[in-house]
TrEMBL record, chain B:
Membrane topology: Multi-pass membrane protein
MF annotations from Gene Ontology: transmembrane transporter activity
Alphabetical UniProt keywords: Cell membrane, Membrane, Transmembrane, Transmembrane helix
Pfam families given in the database record: BPD_transp_2
UniProt superkingdom: Bacteria
Protein's cellular compartments: Cell membrane
Gene Ontology cellular component terms for the protein in this record: plasma membrane
PANTHER family: GUANOSINE ABC TRANSPORTER PERMEASE PROTEIN NUPQ, SUGAR ABC TRANSPORTER INTEGRAL MEMBRANE PROTEIN-RELATED
Entry-linked InterPro entries: ABC_transp_permease (IPR001851)
Transmembrane feature ranges: 6-30, 37-57, 63-83, 95-115, 121-138, 150-168, 201-221, 233-260, 272-294
Name used for this protein in its record: ABC transporter permease
UniProtKB/TrEMBL annotation, chain C:
Protein name: ABC transporter permease
Molecular-function GO terms, alphabetical: transmembrane transporter activity
Cross-referenced Pfam families: BPD_transp_2
PANTHER family per the UniProt record, alphabetical: ABC TRANSPORTER, PERMEASE PROTEIN (PTHR47089), GUANOSINE ABC TRANSPORTER PERMEASE PROTEIN NUPP (PTHR47089:SF1)
A GO cellular-component term linked to this record: plasma membrane
InterPro entries, per database record: ABC_transp_permease
Membrane topology: Multi-pass membrane protein
Keyword Transcription (UniProt): no
Annotated localization: Cell membrane
Organism: Lacrimispora celerecrescens
Record keyword Cell membrane present: yes
UniProt keywords, alphabetically: Cell membrane, Membrane, Transmembrane, Transmembrane helix
Automatic annotation (TrEMBL), chain D:
CDD domains hit by this protein: ABC_Carb_Monos_I, ABC_Carb_Monos_II
Gene Ontology cellular-component terms listed: plasma membrane
Alphabetized InterPro entries for the sequence: AAA+_ATPase, ABC_carbohydrate_import_ATPase, ABC_transporter-like_ATP-bd, ABC_transporter-like_CS, P-loop_NTPase
Topology within the bilayer: Peripheral membrane protein
Keywords: ATP-binding, Cell membrane, Membrane, Nucleotide-binding, Repeat, Translocase, Transport
Localization of this protein: Cell membrane
Species this protein is from: Lacrimispora celerecrescens
Name of the featured protein: ABC transporter ATP-binding protein
PROSITE patterns in UniProt: ABC_TRANSPORTER_1, ABC_TRANSPORTER_2
Length: 348, 310, 343, 512
């Protein structure tokens, strides 16, 4: 039970793009600052972790900060890396995922001189900023796009069945937050849409992802959303191979299997990471603050469909883009309230 | 729940598709098992093969070369194991696990240093193993649907199962191999060089393991991912035990697993908790094995019984 | 030559060889091997945190290697230790969260007992299948590890979920005291050490140990002298399971304080590795576990404080392990001795 | 060309600290049968294994057909025409007889095995020497005698002209031994040279042309058969006189200690299934079971010991029903059991003498306190038994791995007769054991009987059955074909019953 009415930081309104524009032309004010990012996984997932790393690289380019990446695949490594980062005198330690939540709660107070940031969840603490995302909102758009797309039977590979798919990595709460939005978005377009849901049970088995995707296609889906980190490339490949479609996640994955990916639900982990570093460099770091990046803040959203447009040419259903824009506005204005999975949302 | 959608024709191919990598791995393990060597290193051999296949296919544009190099890479890993075990008396399972760790690390390292990528490598430049349909099957309506557009290595695994069976039970080499595995002293007194047989068994196992990897990265998919075997090698070892190192029974074990896995993949969509669906193939495989062993024992007991009418 | 001197010599030469091969890799990527190895040592031993981390990863390995070895003594190849750790962990978590009506010290003991019982029962399945139906325990335990993982994963993302972003349980209400903070080494280390010493004693000095050894080396003889191979096989598998469960309990009560999904990944297989390298010798297994723990935390240290990428660190670790499995230096000595004798 | 096909000179071989052969000399002439004798552990097998290239020699030289062979492997030995029938059969259980015979020398059809050709070649030899072998069966389905013949055929098909037979008769019945000797004579006639190892001096005297004796790894001497006698050979072997024909002690049989009533037991093979066997053993008597190996004796014994399920009928030990009891409970009820296979059943070869001696009393006082084993007590006890039963070496701490056959058997016997049960089941108690040990084991059986234990003796050695038993039952294909008093039995009538011949109605056992 957290107190309601917590401040949603206004600074979050600045997107990474805007921020980097600001950064241009500036001298490297961050030189000498050391930032450590601890990952709960390896880099190279072409998704969440890579996105975070991209934000860091951008910040390094803009501010000249020194970045240290610590990868780890087991809980033991996460904690050890995190503690080592605490001890090694970094100015800022960024915990890239909610896996670090408990360690932060336990240890951050003992390192008052180190600043911490955590992405994708919220942790209280005077030296901690938390940045999380309204992945449900982004997923809502993705679900809506998919629901419309699955009825465009003139496009090759699209069948008349009103069925869309969704494949997740591990069955953990945050993924259900994605799914909640996705399903709501789809039903918003057409209550008759059926949404198939599968979990691979792993973050790094693309072959399993592929198999699940193909199974959903067999069951009538023609577009499947990927929310599976390292398992994801298999989902995208499955779409390509079956001549069907997928929706990417976290990063812009539209180009991973060009022509098979309608759009990607981008979660600006890079922005989050960039903002955290920026705040430390510019001295605006304010402990105990929480940013909840929604569509409004451009923390989540869909890509611009351009790759698909190019691929489908005339057949590209422009109405989807328009509808997505409309929905975006409605969400920002509050006309549409996207539901959260229990335990998620701005007031969590 | 729509049973028709779950038990559709495509389920047959899906079963086979997801079982194939495990069948390859199981054959890799079965060959050494016949020489009484437990090849825990299957996983690592396979992973190395998967990497080599993708790297070579990407760099040379030839899938065939990729497959060949994958097999050689598998061979190298297997030989490290063989020399360590036979020449330097390493515990076979210990060095096998060492090989697994080594493969995991070295493929990651080479992915970074040689291909300049991390995590996943799925460039369009990778040439996958081609898919073919057999023309005579294309005329048969039902079979056509099942056997449409299979990857060459998927066809080949059928050949390989039969080939391995043939080698084990029909050839001179197979006879010697089994003798070495079952009673090395007897083989030795028959003038067979036990160690050299073991080397050869491990070497061939390495070649098949490499091929298993190549199928995984160039046939089943068209990419390399760190640790992309994801315990398929271990599943192969389990399947090998399932079939008692007999290639056909072993393949049957893989198919049982593949079938439940594929049914599971279709069931998930109906809101069954994912973990319960995901554990189903494992439970079903154990149950199948237990039931088959129990009935085999019952049969044996009956055969041995004095009360049975002769 | 004195056996102890000989084994120390073997270990030193093995290390040297592994270091040399590792150095080649490091040179290959253009880093300084000495610096990297310095980082490895510092990573394992420099300061309270690093030593603590090493000891913390040593703790479960002690138990899992012992668990594997105990089963191996009775002739079982128990790949299932990892699953036993998971189930022990989840049971400890369940009891630790829900049975708060018990006073803390009692609750702690009940957590251990519960974890060990459930894990032992889990190990009972492959044991019975093997003993009564000759179903390969290797096959069954490999498969059952996945089952255990999914069951616990289901519980912590469903019925036992803490309702946070991660798949984890609520915190347990009893904890093993930690020391050498901030590392997570805890009193479990001593429990594990005492347990392992106790197991060595059990296997070498008690009647049960004799029976296990008999069954493991010659089941047909065991049956004939009136020791039931089935019973002993099942008992040692269950004992093995209980040790795995204890490791899970220590991880939950001592390290994490809650059940974390997939927390035991690698604990079982590393323990198995430690035990296999020393051919299931219970006395050497703890040393090998320590060596693996040092390698592991040293590897993390190397990643943390040098530019050597993690893949290189892992490669070197693997080379160390491969070299460690080989008895070549032993052989070398024996040959030399023989030659001297025959002269 | 030298007159010898084989010359082994000044051979030295040790395994670790065991000096198996210190000074080995051996020569073999063309066309002779040369026996090699000596106590257990004298180094006979080792000498022959060295000749066959199973291990490298430490020192000395080996010449084959006059050529010095610097290093020899089984492959080279086979190429040089040496064949060896090992003491433990070198046959792969899971393979068929034919596959075993051709293993290593398979006639080929490209890469496949030409089974037709193989069968033809092998059958040719089978017919030539009039042997009875079923090529299609798996090894675990054939009898020991047949396995023996398979081993001989194996050497012949490989073109051996020197054939080494390491204790081939240890497991054979007299009839089978006779058959074997006919084969050996035929082989000699064909110009083959044979090495024959045996502990049975009458056999050695019957078959050999020359005899060499070894003792403790040393060559003692060679004599030709005409110039020697069993007594002299025994003296050469162990340095003293031996008396195998032990005076039977006459005791008055007491209560029934074992009653087997219409018992049916499953069997590994069709002919070894026990179908309705009844017999009893009284305190203070020895009942011998005669029969060709593999006719159900092993199954019957295992059933009595609780190692095999009794499917029907009942077994009573000292009046107590054994059905459903575990081997341990049966032992508690008073069973002592010397199993036929000392290597896998009788001993745990990876444990020490001491541990093996208390194997059936683990967990019992005084060998443990609570759950903790008492090493001191165990050692005391083991020392005592080693002394009483003359187990050599006298150090109970050493592993049974390196014990010779006779001493290994003594460990089993010592353990079983010292626990003081009511019934001793002794299965092939002197198989493969040297005459010194045979003498002492037979004496022990007499003593046990004198003390009032009932003894059920199973032996393939008719001489042993006749010289020890008070009553004899004969088994054939899982049934009892005859029951005789010792006075009425002789090799001939026993042999007939063992082959399934009928006895007169009074002798035949009723099954109820
Ligand atoms: N491989 C081996 N390792 C260690 N010791 C051995 C080995 N083979 C034989 N020995 C030892 O060498 C000695 C001679 O054994 P060998 O088998 O030659 O005796 P043997 O004369 O054949 O006896 P037996 O009559 O019992 O067959 C024995 O003390 C035996 O324990
Ligand atoms: N590889 C080996 N390592 C250690 N000991 C061995 C080895 N091979 C044989 N021995 C031991 O050497 C001894 C002699 O071997 P051998 O094969 O002649 O048996 P044995 O003494 O004649 O016994 P038995 O007559 O019961 O077969 C046996 O006690 C056996 O256990
Ligand atoms: Mg011998
Ligand atoms: Mg012998």
């Amino acid at each position: 039970a957290k107190e309601a009415g917590k401040t949603v930081e206004a600074t979050a309104g600045t997107t990474a793009k805007a921020a980097s524009e600001n950064g241009d032309g500036k001298e490297k004010t961050g030189a000498g600052k050391r930032v450590c990012i601890v990952y709960s996984g390896n880099l190279g997932d072409k998704s969440y972790n890579d996105s975070c790393n991209e934000g860091a690289k951008e910040a390094a380019a803009d501010y000249g900060v020194e970045i240290k990446n610590l990868e780890g695949t087991s809980a033991e490594e996460w904690e050890a890396n995190f503690l080592s980062a605490c001890e090694d005198g970094y100015d800022l330690v960024i915990c890239s995922s909610s896996n670090f939540e408990e360690y932060m709660k336990e240890h951050c107070a003992s390192y008052p001189n180190v600043k911490f940031a955590i992405i994708d969840t919220t942790v209280e603490g005077d030296n901690i900023v938390s940045i999380s995302f309204a992945q449900n909102q982004g997923s809502f758009l993705a679900g809506a796009a998919a629901a419309m797309f699955t009825q465009k039977t003139d496009i090759e590979g699209v069948n008349p069945d009103k069925i869309i798919g969704w494949v997740g990595g591990m069955d953990i709460p945050v993924l259900h937050d994605f799914f909640t939005g996705y399903e709501q978005g789809a039903k918003y377009i057409d209550p008759d849409i059926k949404v198939l849901q599968s979990f691979a049970g792993t973050w790094n088995d693309p072959l399993k992802g592929k198999e699940l995707t193909l199974a959903q296609f067999d069951q009538g889906a023609d577009i499947v959303m990927n929310v599976a980190s390292g398992t994801g490339p298999g989902i995208l490949e499955g779409a390509k191979e079956a001549g069907k479609y997928a929706i990417g996640v976290d990063l812009n994955q539209d180009n991973d299997q060009p022509g098979s990916i309608l759009t990607s639900m981008v979660k600006r982990v890079d922005t989050a990471c960039y903002l955290a570093i920026q705040s430390v460099v510019e001295g605006t770091f304010k402990g105990n603050s929480t940013s909840y990046l929604t569509i409004k803040e451009e923390g989540v959203g869909l890509t611009d469909f351009s790759v698909m447009k190019e691929h489908l040419g005339d057949k590209f259903p422009e109405d989807i883009v328009e509808k997505v824009k409309e929905l975006e506005e409605k969400i920002v204005s509050g006309e549409i309230v996207v539901e959260n999975y229990t335990g998620f949302g701005a007031n969590k | 729940m729509d049973l028709g959608k779950i038990f559709s024709v495509s389920l047959i191919y899906a079963t086979f598709r997801s079982a194939t990598p495990i069948i390859y791995a199981a054959l890799c393990a079965a060959i050494t098992q016949q020489a009484d060597i437990l090849n825990i290193g299957t996983e690592g051999i396979m992973l190395t093969g998967a990497f080599a296949a993708v790297a070579v296919s990407y760099l040379t544009g030839s899938w065939l070369l990729g497959v060949v190099v994958a097999m050689i890479a598998g061979l190298i890993m297997a030989m490290i194991m063989a020399v360590g075990h036979i020449r330097y008396k390493a515990e076979i399972c210990a060095i096998g696990m060492g090989i697994n760790l080594f493969a995991l690390a070295i493929t990651k390292f080479l992915l970074n240093s040689a291909l300049g990528k991390s995590g996943t490598f799925s460039e369009p430049g990778i040439i996958a193993i081609p898919r073919v349909s057999l023309p005579f099957l294309a005329k048969v309506p039902f079979l056509k649907e099942i056997f449409d557009n299979w990857c060459i290595t998927e066809w080949f695994v059928i050949v390989l199962i039969i080939l391995v069976w043939f080698v084990f039970y029909k050839t001179v080499w197979g006879l010697r191999l089994r003798a070495v595995g079952q009673f090395p002293m007897a083989a030795q007194t028959a003038g067979i060089n036990v160690n050299s047989m073991k080397y050869r068994a491990i070497a061939i196992s390495g070649l098949i393991g490499g091929l298993a990897g190549a199928h995984l990265s160039l046939g089943y998919s068209k990419m390399f991912t760190e640790n992309m075997t994801n315990a398929r090698g271990f599943m192969g070892v389990a399947a090998m035990y399932f079939g008692g190192a007999h290639p056909i029974l072993t393949a049957a074990g893989c198919l049982v697993f593949g079938l439940t896995d594929s049914i599971g993949a279709r069931l998930q969509a109906y809101g069954v908790p994912s973990q319960l669906v995901l554990l189903m193939p494992y439970v079903v495989t154990i149950a199948t094995l237990a039931v088959s062993m129990a009935s085999k024992m019952a049969r044996e007991k009956k055969k041995k019984s004095a009360l049975a009418k002769a | 030559m004195n056996v102890a001197v000989k084994s120390i010599q073997k270990i030193l030469l093995t290390m040297l060889l592994a270091l040399a091969i590792g150095a080649l890799f490091i040179l290959f990527i253009g880093e300084n091997p000495l610096e990297a190895y310095g980082a490895l040592l510092r990573g394992a031993f420099n300061g309270k945190l690093k030593i603590g981390t090493t000891l913390a990863s040593f703790t479960p390995l002690l138990l899992t290697s012992c668990a594997f070895a105990v089963a191996a003594k009775a002739g079982a190849f128990n790949v299932g230790v990892e699953g036993e750790v998971f189930l022990g962990g989840i049971t400890a978590a369940y009891i630790g969260i829900n049975w708060t009506f018990l006073p803390a010290p009692v609750l702690m003991i009940v957590c251990f007992l519960g974890a060990m019982t459930v894990a032992a029962l889990w190990a009972l399945i492959p044991a019975v299948l093997k003993a009564y139906y000759r179903v390969s325990e290797v096959c069954v335990t490999i498969l059952m590890n996945s089952v255990a993982l999914y069951i616990t994963s289901y519980l912590v993302s469903g019925p036992m979920s803490a309702g946070v972003a991660n798949a984890q349980s609520l915190p347990v209400t009893v904890n093993l005291p930690q020391f050498m903070k901030p590392s997570s080494v805890n009193a479990g280390l001593f429990i594990a050490l005492i347990t392992v010493v106790f197991m060595i004693w059990v296997l070498n000095k008690t009647t049960f140990g004799y029976k296990v050894k008999t069954v493991g080396t010659n089941p047909s003889h065991a049956e004939y002298v009136g020791i039931s191979p089935k019973k002993i096989f099942i008992q040692s598998m269950m004992l093995s399971g209980a040790l795995g469960g204890m490791a899970g309990c220590i991880e939950v009560l001592g390290v994490h304080g809650y059940f974390l999904n997939n927390f035991a990944a690698g604990l079982g297989s590393n323990g198995m590795l430690a035990s296999l390298i020393v051919k299931n010798n219970l006395i050497f297994a703890p040393f090998m576990s320590f060596f693996l723990a040092v390698l592991k935390s040293g590897a993390m240290g190397m990643q943390q404080s040098t530019g050597v990428p993690k893949s290189i660190v892992d490669t070197i670790t693997a080379v160390f392990i491969i070299v460690a499995t080989m008895e070549l230096l032993f052989q070398f000595k024996d040959k030399k001795n023989k030659k001297e004798k025959s002269k | 060309m030298s007159e010898y096909v084989i010359e082994m000179k000044d051979i030295v071989k040790s395994f670790g600290n065991v000096h198996a052969v210190r000074n080995g000399q051996f020569t073999l002439k063309k066309g002779e049968i040369h026996s090699l004798i000596g106590e257990n552990g004298a180094g006979k097998s080792t000498m022959m294994k060295l000749l066959y290239g199973m291990y490298p020699i430490d020192d000395g030289s080996i010449r084959i057909h006059g050529d010095h062979i610097p290093s020899i492997s089984p492959k080279i030995a086979i190429e040089k025409g040496i064949g060896m029938v090992h003491q433990e059969f070198m046959l792969v259980n899971e393979l068929t007889v034919l596959e075993n015979i051709i293993l290593g020398f398979e006639p080929r059809h490209g890469i496949t095995i030409d089974f037709d050709k193989a069968r033809k070649t092998v059958e040719q030899y089978i017919n030539q020497y009039g042997m009875d072998i079923q090529l299609g069966k798996k090894i675990n389905q054939i009898s020991v005698g047949e396995a023996q013949r398979v081993e001989i055929i194996k050497t012949l098909t490989r073109g051996a002209n020197v054939i080494i037979l390491d204790e081939p008769t240890a497991v054979l019945t007299p009839q089978e031994t006779k058959q074997l000797f006919v084969i050996l004579q035929n082989l000699r006639k064909d110009g083959k040279s044979l090495v024959f190892i045996s502990h049975k001096l009458n056999e050695v005297m019957e078959i050999s042309d020359r005899i060499s004796v070894m003792r403790q790894g040393n060559y003692i001497g060679s004599v030709s058969k005409e110039e020697t006698s069993p007594a002299e050979l025994a003296k050469m072997m162990i340095g003293r006189e031996v008396f195998l024909n032990i005076e039977k002690t006459q005791t008055k049989p007491g209560e029934k200690v074992l009653e087997v009533k219409d018992v049916w037991v499953s069997g590994e093979k069709e002919i070894s299934k026990i179908r309705g066997v009844s017999l009893d053993v009284r305190a203070g008597e020895i009942v011998g079971i005669a029969g060709i190996d593999g006719n159900g004796q092993s199954e019957l014994i295992e059933a009595i010991a609780g190692l095999r399920q009794v499917e029907k009928g009942s077994v009573l030990l000292d009046g107590k029903e054994l059905g459903g009891l575990s081997p341990k409970q049966i032992r508690k009820a008073g069973l002592s059991h010397i199993p036929e296979d000392r290597n896998t059943r009788g001993l745990n070869r990876s444990m020490s003498i001491k541990e093996n001696l208390i194997a059936v009393q683990v967990g019992e006082a005084p060998f443990c306190k609570g759950v903790v084993r008492d090493d001191k007590e165990t050692l005391e006890y083991a020392k005592q038994l080693s002394e009483v039963f003359d187990i050599r070496p006298r150090d109970p701490e050493i592993s049974t791995q390196s014990l010779s056959g006779g001493n290994a058997q003594k460990v089993v016997v010592a353990r079983e007769v010292s626990i003081g049960g009511k019934l001793l089941v002794a299965s092939q108690p002197t198989r493969g054991v040297d005459i010194g040990a045979i003498e002492s084991i037979r004496k022990i059986l007499q003593e046990v009987k004198a003390k009032g234990m009932g003894v059920l003796l199973v032996s393939a050695d008719l001489e042993e059955i006749l010289s020890l038993s008070d009553r004899i039952v004969v088994m054939h294909e899982g049934r009892i074909t005859g029951r005789l008093k010792a006075e009425d039995a002789n090799e001939d009538n026993l042999g007939l019953l063992m082959m399934g011949g009928t006895a007169s109605a009074e002798e035949r056992g009723s099954t109820t």
